[in-house]
Every structure is written in structure tokens, then in C-alpha cells.
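Just curious. Invent one:
>
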Amino acid sequence: MSGAIRVSHYSGCGNDFLIIDDRMEWFPATSTTLIQQLTHTANVDGLILVRKGQKNNFAMKYFNNDGKEASMCGNGLRCFYKFLREKIGSKETDETIEIGALLLEVKEAGQNVRVAMGKVEKLGWNIELDFNGKKWIWHHLNTGVPHIVTFVDDVDAVDVQVVGSFFRNHPQFQPAGTNVNFVDAENMRIRTFERGVEAETLACGTGCTAAGFACAKLKEKKLPIRLQVQSKEHLEIDVVHDKAFMTGPARWIRDGQLSQRDFTLTFQP
């Protein structure tokens, strides 16, 4: 195989992805090393492949920048939808996208994109754990991937890398591990340590969904809940009968090319 394939860089609230039209399934998705190389070269959080769905037109395969496939990515879904509209030419304003075993509805919401995230699974409320002599209270949820949420007075006072990495690997949440969210429920701000990226990201859609759900259930916040992520942009979370909906921006950043011979990635000037 020779030639080059187009690669697009999209961002959902600062959560950045490379997206490739892989409906012909030429990309070696089992190559952890290649995925790590591409995402690190582009300085993005993950890689998204557009595939043909088994039950509908399009399926999304998502890989974190550690090269491992993840079962869900909320910000990625919004970017995936924009890619379908802007790069593949889909005319549908309402898409049902297959990701793993899930079929999720994604549609236009003015200038934003709204994702029906499905039912939130409650894995445990008020889990008390210690770290460096301090007690932390966590709320364990699954919004497609596992998350823990804690409420803090000031998200800027938290060492997200240190505390997040500790609880991401805590025995309480093994074997899968968890994403870790710190939420100021008064000022509606959130910071997230992401599993698979192994660092704080500027935004996490599934994390905001978990945090919004916890705010509604435990803090009795009025729905919909508007959370400011670390990029200073906002995601809106709504909950209806334990089913969550996430609305937010997604935008194109740049296009590039990926060599089909040696997988060299270059971006247009």
C-alpha cells in the first residue's frame, strides 16, 4: 500500500484528538507503539478511527495516547460527529454512533453538539479513603468508563497529578483503575486526571458527565448543570431518569497526512 491518507486534528474543549477515516480498515489498530508515536508527535490526548458500523453507518474506535483502546470518550464523540459532517460529508444532523457495545445518539445543538451518554451506573457513594494523612470522600460512577468524583472548595489548590495518579491506581478501583475528578460545586469548576493519558487533561466529557450527575444527586444542583473545564470552556450536563446528556463545542484545528508506507505524520503549514 502506498500514498497518504488525510488525518484531522479536532478539539473538544481542549481535549484533542487525531481522527482518521478508516472505513477500509487499513490502519494497524493493534499497534500500541504506532498509536503512541502518532499521538505524542501531534501532542494530542487520543486517536479516533472512523469505521463502518455493524448496526448503523458509523462506528468509533478510540485509543488513549498510551496506545490502548478505551470503551468510551465523550469529547471524542462530539469531535467524531463534526468530522463526519465536515470531512466525510454526512448530511445527517442526528447520527447514531456505534462505540463498542453502545449505540449513542449524537446531534447538532446550535453551534454545539449534544451526546446522549446513556444511563449512568452508580458504583458507590461516599467511599472514604486516605492519602498523605487526609481523608478523601469519593463517589464512584460509570459513564461509559469508570470515574470517581470528589468535592473540593478550590480546584486550583489540588495537586491533580499527585493526588489523581494515587487514586487512579488505588486498590479500591482495581483491576480497571479509574479516572479521577475534583469538583468545586459552588463555582461549577472541574479538573480531571485521565486514565490512559496518565495526566490531567484540559477537559473530559465522561468526567463532566459523572461530576454533573453527582452534583445533581448529592448537591441538589438545578439541571442542566454547566461545568467549566480546565481549558475555561464549558460543558453542559443534563440528567433524565439517570440517563445523562452532554452538550458542548467541538472544532477542527488542522489537517495533515499519514504515509501509508511508513506512517510518517506531517501537518499542512
Q: What stands out?
A: The CA atoms of residues 157 and 182 lie 10 Å apart.
